């Protein structure tokens, strides 16, 4: 392996010596009218919130946020033929077989948008990105196959249902970042040039392995470190780290960890617990005033009886997201 890439293959992230600062919950919003439930991504596009479900292949939802209970409004997508991203035939076949049972052949796991309002949906099943323009038909981005090739060579994208879990797109729509979920997890990037989408010397920003310990309310067992979404804000990447119930700020250039904030105290209140022994948060938007965090409850019922997807609004930390640790 080349030295430059080998340097990216990091076994562990820093251990926090003290408890992380806890984010303050401002509001909680059940989401009605998502046909397949399973909210798995969030994006804010010129003041409108959008979401996707990993069970709905042909629907993109805008959210009516005018009341405490939000309403999802479906936009039907005309999905073009799926390109070959280089993902192994075995993983593609496993995704197709799973879709026969649960639905969601494309398994959309994240959504982002550019300043023009174009939306970008990442398909976990096929490791590729669908662009949904403001006007016109959707199209798959012609990403270089080395995105998947390099990721797999580095130990990412090895397991079914552990492929790309999050996406962030630059305001100009000329650069994107993808989050590989787990075992190993990592951050990758590509940019749009005069000859189409390409990577720099490497598509990989960072690769990480290791484990996190679930909170006691979820059994306290060790699980693989994960990324369940990413958000681009003021020149930083923010990662949603589901198993650890935290949001972390990372550098845009290398994905180096800078600092983290926990939302475990609020998320793990007794009335908010699910009978599912792992984290369920899968959607993240970071903005000036705070963060939106969405939950994919897998049709599970919460302790208080709530069975709809949930979006939480957390206040920004004291000093803002750019404050030094």
TrEMBL record:
It comes from the Bacteria. The keyword Signal applies. Pfam families: Phytase-like. Residues 37-183 form the Phytase-like domain. Residues 1-17 form the signal peptide. The keyword Nucleotide-binding does not apply. Keywords: Signal. This is Esterase-like activity of phytase.
């Amino acid at each position: 392996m080349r030295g430059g890439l080998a340097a990216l293959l990091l076994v562990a992230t820093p251990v926090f010596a003290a408890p992380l600062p806890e984010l303050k919950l401002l509001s909680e919003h059940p989401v009605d009218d998502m046909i397949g439930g399973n909210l798995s991504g969030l994006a804010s596009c010129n003041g409108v919130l959008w979401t996707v479900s990993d069970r709905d292949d042909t629907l993109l939802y805008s959210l009516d946020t005018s009341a405490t209970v939000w309403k999802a409004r479906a936009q039907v997508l005309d999905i073009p033929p799926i390109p070959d991203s280089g993902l192994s035939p075995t993983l593609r076949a496993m995704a197709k077989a799973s879709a026969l049972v649960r639905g969601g052949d494309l398994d959309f796991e994240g959504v982002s948008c550019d300043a023009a309002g174009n939306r970008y949906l990442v398909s976990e099943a096929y490791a590729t990105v669908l662009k949904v323009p403001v006007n016109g038909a959707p199209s798959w981005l012609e990403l270089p196959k080395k995105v998947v090739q390099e990721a797999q060579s580095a130990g990412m994208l090895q397991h079914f249902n552990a492929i790309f879990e999050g996406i962030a797109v630059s305001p100009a729509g000329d650069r994107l970042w993808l989050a590989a979920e787990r075992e190993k997890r990592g951050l990758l990037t590509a940019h749009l040039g005069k000859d189409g989408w390409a990577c720099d010397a490497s598509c990989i920003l960072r690769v990480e392995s290791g484990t996190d310990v679930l909170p006691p309310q979820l059994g306290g067992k060790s699980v693989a470190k994960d990324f369940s979404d990413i958000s681009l804000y003021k020149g930083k990447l923010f990662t949603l780290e589901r198993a650890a119930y935290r949001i972390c700020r990372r550098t845009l250039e290398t994905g180096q960890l800078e600092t983290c904030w926990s939302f475990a105290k609020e998320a793990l209140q007794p009335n908010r617990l699910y009978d599912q022994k792992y984290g369920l948060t899968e959607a993240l938007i970071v903005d000036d005033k705070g963060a939106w965090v969405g939950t994919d409850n897998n049709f599970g019922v919460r302790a208080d009886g709530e069975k709809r997807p949930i979006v939480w609004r957390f206040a920004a930390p004291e000093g803002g997201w750019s404050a030094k640790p």
